[in-house]
Design brief:
81% of the residues lie in helices and 1% in strands.
Length: 478
Protein backbone atom coordinates (compact mmCIF):
# COMPACT_ATOMS: atom_id res chain seq x y z
CA UNK A 1 0.00 0.00 0.00
CA UNK A 2 1.29 3.45 -0.88
CA UNK A 3 -0.03 6.87 -0.09
CA UNK A 4 -1.52 9.62 -2.18
CA UNK A 5 -1.06 12.58 0.12
CA UNK A 6 -2.94 11.58 3.24
CA UNK A 7 -5.25 9.33 1.23
CA UNK A 8 -4.28 5.62 1.35
CA UNK A 9 -3.77 4.60 -2.27
CA UNK A 10 -5.49 1.33 -3.15
CA UNK A 11 -5.57 -0.68 -6.35
CA UNK A 12 -9.11 0.40 -7.13
CA UNK A 13 -8.02 4.05 -7.04
CA UNK A 14 -5.77 3.42 -10.04
CA UNK A 15 -8.68 1.72 -11.76
CA UNK A 16 -10.81 4.80 -11.09
CA UNK A 17 -8.21 7.10 -12.64
CA UNK A 18 -7.79 4.99 -15.76
CA UNK A 19 -11.53 4.68 -16.30
CA UNK A 20 -11.88 8.43 -15.71
CA UNK A 21 -9.34 9.05 -18.48
CA UNK A 22 -11.33 6.65 -20.65
CA UNK A 23 -14.36 8.90 -20.12
CA UNK A 24 -12.29 12.00 -20.94
CA UNK A 25 -11.22 10.74 -24.38
CA UNK A 26 -14.60 9.18 -25.11
CA UNK A 27 -16.50 12.36 -24.24
CA UNK A 28 -14.07 14.52 -26.21
CA UNK A 29 -14.47 12.30 -29.30
CA UNK A 30 -18.26 12.68 -29.27
CA UNK A 31 -18.33 16.38 -28.30
CA UNK A 32 -15.93 17.53 -31.00
CA UNK A 33 -18.61 16.89 -33.63
CA UNK A 34 -20.61 19.98 -32.61
CA UNK A 35 -17.80 22.58 -32.88
CA UNK A 36 -16.53 20.97 -36.08
CA UNK A 37 -19.97 21.07 -37.70
CA UNK A 38 -20.37 24.72 -36.69
CA UNK A 39 -17.02 25.55 -38.33
CA UNK A 40 -17.99 23.61 -41.46
CA UNK A 41 -21.22 25.59 -41.79
CA UNK A 42 -19.54 28.95 -41.23
CA UNK A 43 -16.77 28.15 -43.72
CA UNK A 44 -18.98 26.53 -46.36
CA UNK A 45 -17.27 23.14 -46.34
CA UNK A 46 -18.77 21.51 -49.42
CA UNK A 47 -20.55 18.43 -48.12
CA UNK A 48 -22.20 20.24 -45.19
CA UNK A 49 -22.02 23.99 -45.63
CA UNK A 50 -23.61 23.80 -49.09
CA UNK A 51 -26.86 22.37 -47.68
CA UNK A 52 -29.98 24.56 -47.80
CA UNK A 53 -30.60 23.74 -44.13
CA UNK A 54 -27.10 23.17 -42.70
CA UNK A 55 -28.02 23.61 -39.03
CA UNK A 56 -30.88 21.14 -39.27
CA UNK A 57 -28.56 18.73 -41.05
CA UNK A 58 -25.88 19.23 -38.41
CA UNK A 59 -28.43 18.53 -35.68
CA UNK A 60 -29.48 15.37 -37.49
CA UNK A 61 -25.85 14.17 -37.53
CA UNK A 62 -25.72 14.59 -33.75
CA UNK A 63 -29.06 12.85 -33.31
CA UNK A 64 -27.97 9.86 -35.38
CA UNK A 65 -24.72 9.64 -33.37
CA UNK A 66 -26.73 9.32 -30.17
CA UNK A 67 -28.96 6.74 -31.79
CA UNK A 68 -25.88 4.58 -32.31
CA UNK A 69 -24.67 5.33 -28.80
CA UNK A 70 -28.07 4.38 -27.38
CA UNK A 71 -28.48 1.10 -29.23
CA UNK A 72 -25.24 -0.55 -28.07
CA UNK A 73 -25.85 0.20 -24.38
CA UNK A 74 -27.63 -3.07 -23.65
CA UNK A 75 -25.65 -5.35 -26.03
CA UNK A 76 -22.42 -3.85 -24.68
CA UNK A 77 -23.37 -4.69 -21.11
CA UNK A 78 -24.61 -8.15 -22.08
CA UNK A 79 -21.37 -8.91 -23.91
CA UNK A 80 -19.39 -7.59 -20.95
CA UNK A 81 -21.14 -10.09 -18.69
CA UNK A 82 -20.32 -12.78 -21.25
CA UNK A 83 -16.73 -11.96 -22.28
CA UNK A 84 -15.52 -9.82 -19.41
CA UNK A 85 -16.03 -6.13 -18.72
CA UNK A 86 -12.34 -5.33 -19.20
CA UNK A 87 -12.55 -6.86 -22.66
CA UNK A 88 -15.40 -4.60 -23.81
CA UNK A 89 -13.88 -1.48 -22.23
CA UNK A 90 -10.67 -1.91 -24.23
CA UNK A 91 -12.60 -2.66 -27.43
CA UNK A 92 -14.84 0.37 -26.92
CA UNK A 93 -11.96 2.83 -26.50
CA UNK A 94 -9.89 1.44 -29.37
CA UNK A 95 -12.99 1.30 -31.58
CA UNK A 96 -13.78 4.96 -30.82
CA UNK A 97 -10.19 5.97 -31.50
CA UNK A 98 -10.04 4.28 -34.90
CA UNK A 99 -13.47 5.59 -35.96
CA UNK A 100 -12.59 9.13 -34.86
CA UNK A 101 -9.34 9.12 -36.85
CA UNK A 102 -11.06 7.74 -39.95
CA UNK A 103 -13.76 10.44 -39.58
CA UNK A 104 -11.06 12.96 -40.43
CA UNK A 105 -10.42 11.33 -43.81
CA UNK A 106 -13.98 11.26 -45.20
CA UNK A 107 -14.92 13.40 -48.18
CA UNK A 108 -18.69 12.88 -48.38
CA UNK A 109 -21.67 13.65 -46.16
CA UNK A 110 -22.87 10.05 -46.08
CA UNK A 111 -19.39 8.85 -45.11
CA UNK A 112 -19.15 11.46 -42.36
CA UNK A 113 -22.54 10.50 -40.92
CA UNK A 114 -21.72 6.79 -41.09
CA UNK A 115 -18.39 7.27 -39.30
CA UNK A 116 -20.02 9.34 -36.55
CA UNK A 117 -22.68 6.63 -36.11
CA UNK A 118 -19.96 3.96 -35.99
CA UNK A 119 -18.13 6.00 -33.35
CA UNK A 120 -21.31 6.13 -31.29
CA UNK A 121 -21.84 2.39 -31.63
CA UNK A 122 -18.39 1.74 -30.19
CA UNK A 123 -18.63 4.30 -27.40
CA UNK A 124 -22.03 2.98 -26.35
CA UNK A 125 -20.42 -0.20 -25.02
CA UNK A 126 -18.24 1.67 -22.49
CA UNK A 127 -20.75 2.91 -19.94
CA UNK A 128 -22.31 -0.35 -18.75
CA UNK A 129 -18.94 -2.08 -18.41
CA UNK A 130 -17.13 0.75 -16.65
CA UNK A 131 -20.00 1.04 -14.13
CA UNK A 132 -19.95 -2.72 -13.55
CA UNK A 133 -16.18 -2.90 -13.09
CA UNK A 134 -16.27 -0.08 -10.54
CA UNK A 135 -19.04 -1.87 -8.63
CA UNK A 136 -17.04 -5.11 -8.75
CA UNK A 137 -13.69 -3.73 -7.59
CA UNK A 138 -14.69 -0.95 -5.20
CA UNK A 139 -15.66 -1.60 -1.58
CA UNK A 140 -19.41 -1.39 -1.15
CA UNK A 141 -19.32 1.63 1.14
CA UNK A 142 -17.28 3.62 -1.46
CA UNK A 143 -19.21 2.55 -4.55
CA UNK A 144 -21.12 5.80 -5.16
CA UNK A 145 -17.99 7.92 -4.66
CA UNK A 146 -16.04 5.79 -7.12
CA UNK A 147 -18.74 6.09 -9.76
CA UNK A 148 -18.90 9.85 -9.17
CA UNK A 149 -15.14 10.30 -9.45
CA UNK A 150 -14.90 8.29 -12.67
CA UNK A 151 -17.87 9.92 -14.43
CA UNK A 152 -16.23 13.31 -13.79
CA UNK A 153 -14.20 12.44 -16.88
CA UNK A 154 -17.36 13.11 -18.91
CA UNK A 155 -17.44 16.78 -17.83
CA UNK A 156 -13.69 17.14 -18.30
CA UNK A 157 -13.80 15.65 -21.80
CA UNK A 158 -16.70 17.86 -22.89
CA UNK A 159 -14.96 20.96 -21.56
CA UNK A 160 -11.62 20.12 -23.19
CA UNK A 161 -13.23 19.38 -26.56
CA UNK A 162 -15.01 22.73 -26.61
CA UNK A 163 -11.95 24.68 -25.48
CA UNK A 164 -9.44 22.95 -27.77
CA UNK A 165 -11.47 22.69 -30.98
CA UNK A 166 -10.74 26.23 -32.30
CA UNK A 167 -6.99 25.81 -31.74
CA UNK A 168 -6.90 22.35 -33.33
CA UNK A 169 -8.87 23.58 -36.35
CA UNK A 170 -6.55 26.58 -36.78
CA UNK A 171 -3.56 24.25 -36.52
CA UNK A 172 -5.12 22.07 -39.19
CA UNK A 173 -5.62 25.07 -41.45
CA UNK A 174 -1.93 25.87 -41.15
CA UNK A 175 -0.90 22.35 -42.16
CA UNK A 176 -3.54 21.30 -44.71
CA UNK A 177 -4.54 23.19 -47.87
CA UNK A 178 -8.08 24.38 -48.49
CA UNK A 179 -10.85 24.22 -45.93
CA UNK A 180 -9.56 21.06 -44.28
CA UNK A 181 -8.67 22.35 -40.83
CA UNK A 182 -11.76 20.60 -39.42
CA UNK A 183 -9.99 17.27 -39.89
CA UNK A 184 -7.26 17.96 -37.33
CA UNK A 185 -9.43 17.58 -34.18
CA UNK A 186 -10.44 14.10 -35.33
CA UNK A 187 -6.81 13.11 -36.00
CA UNK A 188 -5.48 14.45 -32.70
CA UNK A 189 -8.27 13.30 -30.42
CA UNK A 190 -8.51 9.94 -32.19
CA UNK A 191 -4.78 9.36 -31.70
CA UNK A 192 -5.02 10.26 -28.01
CA UNK A 193 -7.94 7.85 -27.66
CA UNK A 194 -5.90 5.09 -29.29
CA UNK A 195 -3.07 5.69 -26.83
CA UNK A 196 -5.57 5.48 -23.97
CA UNK A 197 -6.92 2.22 -25.38
CA UNK A 198 -3.44 0.70 -25.52
CA UNK A 199 -2.78 1.85 -21.95
CA UNK A 200 -5.97 0.15 -20.73
CA UNK A 201 -5.10 -2.98 -22.73
CA UNK A 202 -1.69 -3.24 -21.06
CA UNK A 203 -3.12 -2.56 -17.60
CA UNK A 204 -5.84 -5.20 -17.93
CA UNK A 205 -3.48 -7.70 -19.57
CA UNK A 206 -1.35 -7.67 -16.40
CA UNK A 207 -4.45 -8.77 -14.48
CA UNK A 208 -5.98 -11.18 -17.03
CA UNK A 209 -3.58 -12.05 -19.87
CA UNK A 210 -5.96 -14.00 -22.11
CA UNK A 211 -9.10 -11.91 -22.50
CA UNK A 212 -11.30 -13.05 -25.45
CA UNK A 213 -10.97 -9.94 -27.60
CA UNK A 214 -11.51 -11.65 -30.95
CA UNK A 215 -14.77 -13.35 -30.00
CA UNK A 216 -16.09 -10.20 -28.32
CA UNK A 217 -15.23 -7.98 -31.30
CA UNK A 218 -16.95 -10.33 -33.73
CA UNK A 219 -20.14 -10.44 -31.68
CA UNK A 220 -20.18 -6.68 -31.12
CA UNK A 221 -19.68 -6.21 -34.87
CA UNK A 222 -22.77 -8.33 -35.55
CA UNK A 223 -24.95 -6.10 -33.39
CA UNK A 224 -23.34 -2.93 -34.72
CA UNK A 225 -23.79 -3.91 -38.38
CA UNK A 226 -27.53 -4.34 -37.85
CA UNK A 227 -27.82 -1.06 -35.94
CA UNK A 228 -25.72 0.85 -38.50
CA UNK A 229 -27.92 -0.41 -41.33
CA UNK A 230 -31.07 0.58 -39.42
CA UNK A 231 -29.81 4.07 -38.51
CA UNK A 232 -28.59 4.84 -42.02
CA UNK A 233 -31.94 3.64 -43.38
CA UNK A 234 -33.61 6.21 -41.09
CA UNK A 235 -31.32 8.89 -42.50
CA UNK A 236 -32.01 8.01 -46.15
CA UNK A 237 -35.74 7.80 -45.44
CA UNK A 238 -35.77 11.22 -43.78
CA UNK A 239 -33.87 12.72 -46.70
CA UNK A 240 -36.10 11.19 -49.35
CA UNK A 241 -39.44 12.27 -47.87
CA UNK A 242 -38.39 15.46 -46.09
CA UNK A 243 -39.22 14.11 -42.64
CA UNK A 244 -39.06 16.64 -39.79
CA UNK A 245 -36.47 16.21 -37.04
CA UNK A 246 -38.98 14.99 -34.47
CA UNK A 247 -40.09 12.29 -36.90
CA UNK A 248 -36.53 11.05 -37.17
CA UNK A 249 -36.23 11.02 -33.37
CA UNK A 250 -39.50 9.07 -33.13
CA UNK A 251 -38.19 6.38 -35.49
CA UNK A 252 -34.99 6.18 -33.45
CA UNK A 253 -37.14 5.50 -30.40
CA UNK A 254 -38.90 2.73 -32.30
CA UNK A 255 -35.48 1.14 -32.84
CA UNK A 256 -34.87 1.34 -29.09
CA UNK A 257 -38.25 -0.26 -28.35
CA UNK A 258 -37.49 -3.05 -30.80
CA UNK A 259 -34.20 -3.69 -29.03
CA UNK A 260 -35.96 -3.73 -25.66
CA UNK A 261 -38.51 -6.14 -27.09
CA UNK A 262 -35.68 -8.36 -28.32
CA UNK A 263 -34.12 -8.29 -24.86
CA UNK A 264 -37.34 -9.36 -23.19
CA UNK A 265 -38.34 -11.83 -25.91
CA UNK A 266 -35.04 -13.58 -26.61
CA UNK A 267 -33.04 -12.95 -23.45
CA UNK A 268 -35.89 -12.69 -20.95
CA UNK A 269 -35.31 -16.05 -19.29
CA UNK A 270 -31.53 -15.67 -19.24
CA UNK A 271 -31.60 -12.11 -17.92
CA UNK A 272 -34.78 -12.23 -15.87
CA UNK A 273 -33.02 -10.95 -12.68
CA UNK A 274 -32.48 -7.56 -14.33
CA UNK A 275 -35.35 -7.44 -16.83
CA UNK A 276 -38.24 -8.46 -14.59
CA UNK A 277 -37.07 -6.84 -11.35
CA UNK A 278 -39.61 -4.15 -10.40
CA UNK A 279 -37.07 -2.03 -8.55
CA UNK A 280 -34.63 -2.00 -11.46
CA UNK A 281 -37.40 -1.27 -13.97
CA UNK A 282 -38.41 1.79 -11.93
CA UNK A 283 -34.80 3.02 -11.92
CA UNK A 284 -34.51 2.42 -15.68
CA UNK A 285 -37.63 4.49 -16.40
CA UNK A 286 -36.61 7.20 -13.93
CA UNK A 287 -33.34 7.51 -15.89
CA UNK A 288 -35.29 8.94 -18.85
CA UNK A 289 -35.63 12.20 -16.91
CA UNK A 290 -31.91 12.18 -16.13
CA UNK A 291 -30.87 11.90 -19.77
CA UNK A 292 -33.64 14.27 -20.89
CA UNK A 293 -32.36 16.97 -18.54
CA UNK A 294 -28.71 16.31 -19.44
CA UNK A 295 -29.20 16.88 -23.14
CA UNK A 296 -31.89 19.56 -22.80
CA UNK A 297 -29.48 21.89 -21.02
CA UNK A 298 -26.44 20.43 -22.78
CA UNK A 299 -27.98 21.23 -26.16
CA UNK A 300 -29.99 24.39 -25.51
CA UNK A 301 -28.54 26.17 -22.44
CA UNK A 302 -26.70 28.77 -24.53
CA UNK A 303 -29.84 29.50 -26.54
CA UNK A 304 -31.97 29.73 -23.37
CA UNK A 305 -29.66 32.33 -21.80
CA UNK A 306 -29.14 34.25 -25.04
CA UNK A 307 -32.88 34.45 -25.62
CA UNK A 308 -33.85 35.36 -22.05
CA UNK A 309 -31.09 37.88 -21.36
CA UNK A 310 -30.80 39.21 -24.92
CA UNK A 311 -27.03 38.96 -24.63
CA UNK A 312 -24.16 38.00 -26.93
CA UNK A 313 -23.42 34.42 -27.92
CA UNK A 314 -20.06 34.54 -26.13
CA UNK A 315 -21.53 35.82 -22.87
CA UNK A 316 -24.34 33.28 -23.06
CA UNK A 317 -21.84 30.48 -23.69
CA UNK A 318 -19.69 31.53 -20.75
CA UNK A 319 -22.77 31.60 -18.53
CA UNK A 320 -23.80 28.15 -19.76
CA UNK A 321 -20.48 26.72 -18.62
CA UNK A 322 -21.77 27.03 -15.06
CA UNK A 323 -24.20 24.26 -15.98
CA UNK A 324 -21.52 21.97 -17.46
CA UNK A 325 -18.80 22.80 -14.94
CA UNK A 326 -20.96 21.84 -11.98
CA UNK A 327 -20.40 18.19 -12.91
CA UNK A 328 -16.73 18.34 -11.94
CA UNK A 329 -17.83 19.03 -8.36
CA UNK A 330 -21.27 17.43 -8.34
CA UNK A 331 -20.37 13.93 -9.55
CA UNK A 332 -17.83 13.05 -6.83
CA UNK A 333 -19.65 15.05 -4.13
CA UNK A 334 -22.89 13.19 -4.72
CA UNK A 335 -21.12 9.85 -4.68
CA UNK A 336 -19.30 10.66 -1.44
CA UNK A 337 -22.50 11.83 0.28
CA UNK A 338 -24.37 8.69 -0.76
CA UNK A 339 -21.58 6.49 0.59
CA UNK A 340 -21.63 8.50 3.82
CA UNK A 341 -25.35 7.75 4.07
CA UNK A 342 -24.62 4.04 3.59
CA UNK A 343 -22.00 4.09 6.33
CA UNK A 344 -24.53 5.71 8.62
CA UNK A 345 -27.05 2.99 7.78
CA UNK A 346 -29.44 5.32 5.96
CA UNK A 347 -29.06 3.74 2.51
CA UNK A 348 -28.72 5.48 -0.86
CA UNK A 349 -32.39 5.86 -1.75
CA UNK A 350 -33.08 8.71 0.65
CA UNK A 351 -30.21 10.75 -0.75
CA UNK A 352 -31.35 10.04 -4.33
CA UNK A 353 -34.91 11.12 -3.51
CA UNK A 354 -33.74 14.30 -1.79
CA UNK A 355 -31.47 15.40 -4.63
CA UNK A 356 -34.08 14.57 -7.30
CA UNK A 357 -36.76 16.58 -5.51
CA UNK A 358 -34.46 19.57 -4.98
CA UNK A 359 -33.35 19.50 -8.62
CA UNK A 360 -36.94 19.31 -9.86
CA UNK A 361 -38.07 22.23 -7.71
CA UNK A 362 -35.06 24.34 -8.71
CA UNK A 363 -35.74 23.62 -12.39
CA UNK A 364 -39.35 24.74 -11.99
CA UNK A 365 -38.05 27.83 -10.19
CA UNK A 366 -35.79 28.57 -13.15
CA UNK A 367 -38.77 28.20 -15.48
CA UNK A 368 -40.85 30.52 -13.29
CA UNK A 369 -38.06 33.11 -13.38
CA UNK A 370 -38.05 32.97 -17.18
CA UNK A 371 -41.85 33.26 -17.31
CA UNK A 372 -41.62 36.50 -15.30
CA UNK A 373 -39.24 37.99 -17.83
CA UNK A 374 -36.08 37.48 -15.77
CA UNK A 375 -32.96 38.75 -17.55
CA UNK A 376 -30.16 38.69 -14.99
CA UNK A 377 -27.24 36.70 -16.38
CA UNK A 378 -25.72 36.44 -12.89
CA UNK A 379 -28.89 34.99 -11.35
CA UNK A 380 -29.32 32.54 -14.23
CA UNK A 381 -25.71 31.43 -13.82
CA UNK A 382 -26.31 30.79 -10.11
CA UNK A 383 -29.55 28.91 -10.77
CA UNK A 384 -27.93 26.79 -13.47
CA UNK A 385 -24.93 25.97 -11.29
CA UNK A 386 -26.90 25.02 -8.17
CA UNK A 387 -29.49 23.03 -10.11
CA UNK A 388 -26.78 21.22 -12.08
CA UNK A 389 -24.88 20.53 -8.87
CA UNK A 390 -27.76 18.47 -7.50
CA UNK A 391 -28.42 16.93 -10.91
CA UNK A 392 -24.86 15.69 -11.35
CA UNK A 393 -24.71 14.55 -7.75
CA UNK A 394 -27.75 12.28 -8.10
CA UNK A 395 -26.41 10.36 -11.11
CA UNK A 396 -23.73 8.25 -9.36
CA UNK A 397 -26.25 7.59 -6.59
CA UNK A 398 -28.75 6.15 -9.07
CA UNK A 399 -26.01 4.10 -10.71
CA UNK A 400 -24.74 2.75 -7.40
CA UNK A 401 -28.29 1.88 -6.32
CA UNK A 402 -28.69 -0.03 -9.59
CA UNK A 403 -25.50 -1.96 -8.81
CA UNK A 404 -26.76 -2.68 -5.30
CA UNK A 405 -30.00 -4.21 -6.56
CA UNK A 406 -28.74 -6.08 -9.64
CA UNK A 407 -27.05 -9.49 -9.13
CA UNK A 408 -23.30 -9.18 -9.63
CA UNK A 409 -23.20 -11.49 -12.66
CA UNK A 410 -25.85 -9.41 -14.48
CA UNK A 411 -24.72 -5.88 -13.65
CA UNK A 412 -23.46 -5.19 -17.18
CA UNK A 413 -26.89 -5.98 -18.62
CA UNK A 414 -28.56 -3.93 -15.89
CA UNK A 415 -26.44 -0.84 -16.59
CA UNK A 416 -26.94 -1.35 -20.32
CA UNK A 417 -30.71 -1.37 -19.88
CA UNK A 418 -30.52 1.66 -17.52
CA UNK A 419 -28.77 3.71 -20.19
CA UNK A 420 -30.69 2.27 -23.15
CA UNK A 421 -34.03 3.30 -21.67
CA UNK A 422 -32.60 6.53 -20.26
CA UNK A 423 -31.14 7.54 -23.63
CA UNK A 424 -34.69 7.79 -24.99
CA UNK A 425 -34.77 11.07 -23.11
CA UNK A 426 -31.51 12.16 -24.78
CA UNK A 427 -32.90 11.43 -28.23
CA UNK A 428 -36.20 13.26 -27.74
CA UNK A 429 -35.20 16.15 -25.47
CA UNK A 430 -33.49 18.51 -27.98
CA UNK A 431 -36.19 17.95 -30.62
CA UNK A 432 -39.25 18.31 -28.38
CA UNK A 433 -37.78 21.25 -26.49
CA UNK A 434 -36.91 23.03 -29.72
CA UNK A 435 -40.43 22.46 -31.03
CA UNK A 436 -41.90 23.95 -27.85
CA UNK A 437 -39.62 26.97 -28.25
CA UNK A 438 -40.81 27.49 -31.82
CA UNK A 439 -44.47 27.07 -30.85
CA UNK A 440 -44.44 29.41 -27.82
CA UNK A 441 -41.67 31.86 -28.63
CA UNK A 442 -39.93 31.32 -25.28
CA UNK A 443 -38.10 28.54 -23.43
CA UNK A 444 -40.44 28.60 -20.43
CA UNK A 445 -42.62 25.66 -21.49
CA UNK A 446 -39.57 23.51 -22.30
CA UNK A 447 -37.98 24.25 -18.91
CA UNK A 448 -41.26 23.54 -17.09
CA UNK A 449 -41.61 20.23 -18.95
CA UNK A 450 -38.08 19.29 -17.91
CA UNK A 451 -38.90 20.07 -14.26
CA UNK A 452 -42.14 18.06 -14.45
CA UNK A 453 -40.28 15.01 -15.80
CA UNK A 454 -37.77 15.23 -12.97
CA UNK A 455 -40.56 15.29 -10.39
CA UNK A 456 -42.21 12.34 -12.15
CA UNK A 457 -38.96 10.40 -11.72
CA UNK A 458 -39.03 11.35 -8.02
CA UNK A 459 -42.43 9.66 -7.74
CA UNK A 460 -41.11 6.51 -9.44
CA UNK A 461 -38.12 6.30 -7.10
CA UNK A 462 -40.47 6.43 -4.11
CA UNK A 463 -41.57 2.90 -5.01
CA UNK A 464 -38.03 1.49 -5.34
CA UNK A 465 -37.22 -0.93 -2.56
CA UNK A 466 -33.60 -0.71 -1.51
CA UNK A 467 -31.75 -3.79 -0.30
CA UNK A 468 -31.65 -3.78 3.47
CA UNK A 469 -28.41 -5.70 3.90
CA UNK A 470 -25.07 -4.38 2.76
CA UNK A 471 -22.71 -6.52 0.74
CA UNK A 472 -19.60 -7.73 2.55
CA UNK A 473 -16.44 -5.75 1.94
CA UNK A 474 -14.57 -7.15 -1.04
CA UNK A 475 -10.89 -7.49 -1.75
CA UNK A 476 -9.50 -4.48 -3.55
CA UNK A 477 -8.08 -4.72 -7.05
CA UNK A 478 -4.36 -5.01 -7.43
Amino acid sequence: MGAFGRWPWQGYHKLWMLLLLGWVVSAADRTITGPVITWMIENQVSFLGASDHPHALGGLVGSLFFAGYMLTQFPGGYLGDKYGHRTIIVISILWAGVATIVSGFVTSLVGFIALRVITGLGEGAYYSNDRTLIAEKTPFEKRSFGMGVVITGLSIGITLAILLSPYLINWGQAWMPGKNGWRMPFFVLGAITMIMGVWLYRYFRAQQPNLPYRAAVLELLKYSAVFLAAIMAVYFLSESIGMPDYGVAAIELILAFLLIGFAFGKKGKELSPVLYNKNLLLLYIAAIAILWNLWFFGFWSVAIISNAADTSFLKAALTATFNAGAGILGFPAGGWLADYAVRKGWGRKGMLLSFTLIQGLLTLGFGFYLSQGGQSVVLMAVLLFVTSLFFNALQPISQALTADIAPAEYRGAAFGMWNLIGEMGAVMSPVVSGALRDATGTWTAAVMLDGALILASFVLILFVREKAAEEPLMKVAN
